[in-house]
């Protein structure tokens, strides 16, 4: 016990390390309980601030083994409950300030989580990112060549849709977001090849593409509300279906870069047809099939036509926007 | 035509403002879109016109509530020579 209570004599960082490693290490029981703590330790001092301070103080004592380059006077220890274990803080005010700072950071983190979960349901968002590689491969193949796929129905499991991991027809937000970023990078590369690149263009390209998707989603929401289509399309579903066009855009830009202007138009035609087919088949299931539940006979004759118009208009909008957003990249 | 997020926000605010300034008595009732003309048809499928009228009325209610609580002064700068 006496060895562990020995205070550091030389405040130099290197010598702190030496003295640490000559000190008596705690028992294995401590190490086992502190393993998750130790894993986060070596990177920076940040895990200390954003770590779970609600756990017991003893695991924090092992932070003393890492000195992440703070000021020489105080290697962060996190305010051990029993001051006798690692007396690295020469200055008690610094340890008190450290504890205060970490509690403030935790409060801030909780507030941010609460505010975010007020606007965006995080659980619903997690459903859209529950993907694996097999799903991504199959979905990308489906977006490029959807003509041989037979069954477009989204499978359910006790009233909740299956996650994308288990059902290839479910929509996800992983592919659209990755495709968006890839599209931005590809646009930068295409412009760089033509020596028209500047950093502002990247931001402009990104915001233009994003704004068009937001506009499309808003218009779709408006149309679905006005025609009182009671489908289970949430706003994330609409973002997903609108975001799938980024895959078509990437394919088009690649075709234009590799094979010149002819390749651009061939790739544009191919991806437009594939995307139109995909959108019509997918949305038909969601929008048009909701008729079967609540059709009242004579009064519902006008509705199927309007719903069909929405689906076809959405599909027809895709080639236009793909052309609009990619033509300036491939001259 | 390059959009920025700012121009999108501008467009949305202007559109919502345009819907909010439609006057109930002077204009909407004249063209048959007043609030008293939307009642009826209690079937499960309200028509397009009824839905639109409901939308206009709810936008006006929300905007009126917002301006009565606090008077937001939205200063939209006139941007010439946009990108």
UniProtKB/TrEMBL annotation, chain A:
Task of the protein: Has a role in transport between endoplasmic reticulum and Golgi.
InterPro entries the record matches: Yif1_fam
Protein name: Protein YIF1
Membrane topology term: Multi-pass membrane protein
UniProt main location, coarse: endoplasmic reticulum
Transmembrane spans: 173-194, 201-227, 247-280, 306-325
Domain of life, per lineage: Eukaryota
Organism: Oncorhynchus kisutch (Coho salmon)
GO cellular component labels: COPII-coated ER to Golgi transport vesicle; endoplasmic reticulum membrane; endoplasmic reticulum-Golgi intermediate compartment; Golgi membrane
UniProtKB keywords: Endoplasmic reticulum, Golgi apparatus, Membrane, Protein transport, Transmembrane, Transmembrane helix, Transport
Biological processes annotated in GO: endoplasmic reticulum to Golgi vesicle-mediated transport; protein transport
Family, similarity comment: Belongs to the YIF1 family.
Compartmental location: Endoplasmic reticulum membrane; Golgi apparatus membrane
Automatic annotation (TrEMBL), chain B:
Lineage: Eukaryota, Metazoa, Chordata, Craniata, Vertebrata
Task of the protein: Regulator of endoplasmic reticulum secretion that acts as a key determinant of brain size. Required for secretion of extracellular matrix proteins. Required for correct brain development by depositing sufficient extracellular matrix proteins for tissue integrity and the proliferation of neural progenitors. Acts as a regulator of the unfolded protein response (UPR).
Main location: membrane
Any Pfam family matching the protein: Yos1
Keywords: Membrane, Protein transport, Signal, Transmembrane, Transmembrane helix, Transport
Family: Belongs to the YOS1 family.
A single GO BP: endoplasmic reticulum to Golgi vesicle-mediated transport
Official protein name in the record: Immediate early response 3-interacting protein 1
């Amino acid at each position: 016990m006496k060895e562990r209570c020995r205070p550091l004599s030389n405040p130099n960082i290197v010598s702190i390390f030496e003295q640490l490693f000559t000190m008596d290490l705690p028992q294995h029981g401590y190490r086992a309980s502190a393993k998750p703590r130790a894993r986060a330790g070596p990177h920076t001092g940040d895990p200390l601030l954003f770590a779970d301070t609600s756990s017991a103080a003893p695991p924090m004592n092992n932070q003393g083994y890492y000195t992440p380059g703070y000021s020489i006077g105080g290697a962060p220890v996190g305010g051990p409950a029993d001051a006798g274990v690692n007396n690295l803080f020469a200055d008690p005010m610094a340890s008190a300030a450290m504890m205060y700072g970490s509690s403030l950071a935790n409060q801030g983190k909780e507030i941010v989580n609460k505010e975010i979960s007020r606007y965006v349901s995080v659980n619903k968002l997690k459903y859209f990112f529950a993907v694996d590689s097999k799903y991504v491969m199959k979905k990308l193949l489906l977006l490029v060549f959807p003509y041989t796929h037979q069954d477009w129905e989204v499978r359910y499991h006790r009233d909740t849709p299956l996650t994308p991991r288990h059902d290839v027809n479910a929509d996800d937000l992983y592919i659209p977001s990755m495709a968006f970023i890839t599209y931005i990078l590809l646009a930068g590369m295409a412009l760089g090849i033509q020596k028209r690149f500047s950093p502002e263009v990247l931001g402009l390209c990104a915001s233009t593409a994003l704004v068009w998707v937001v506009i499309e989603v808003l218009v779709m929401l408006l149309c679905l509300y006005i025609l009182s289509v009671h489908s289970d399309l949430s706003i994330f579903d609409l973002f997903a279906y609108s975001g799938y066009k980024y895959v078509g855009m990437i394919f088009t830009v690649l075709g234009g870069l590799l094979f010149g202007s002819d390749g651009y138009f061939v790739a544009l035609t191919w991806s437009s047809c594939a995307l139109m087919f995909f959108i019509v088949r997918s949305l038909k299931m969601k929008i048009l099939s909701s008729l079967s539940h609540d059709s009242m006979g004579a009064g519902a004759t006008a509705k199927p036509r309007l719903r069909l118009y929405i689906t076809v208009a959405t599909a027809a909008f895709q080639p236009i926007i793909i052309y609009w957003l990619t033509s300036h990249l491939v001259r | 035509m390059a959009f920025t997020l700012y121009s999108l926000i501008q467009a949305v605010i202007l559109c919502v403002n345009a819907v909010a300034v439609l006057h109930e008595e002077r204009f909407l009732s004249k063209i048959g879109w007043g609030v008293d003309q939307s009642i009826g048809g209690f079937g499960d499928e309200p028509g397009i016109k009824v839905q639109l009228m409901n939308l206009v009325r709810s936008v006006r209610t929300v905007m009126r509530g917002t301006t009565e609580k606090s008077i937001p002064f939205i200063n939209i700068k006139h941007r010439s020579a946009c990108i």
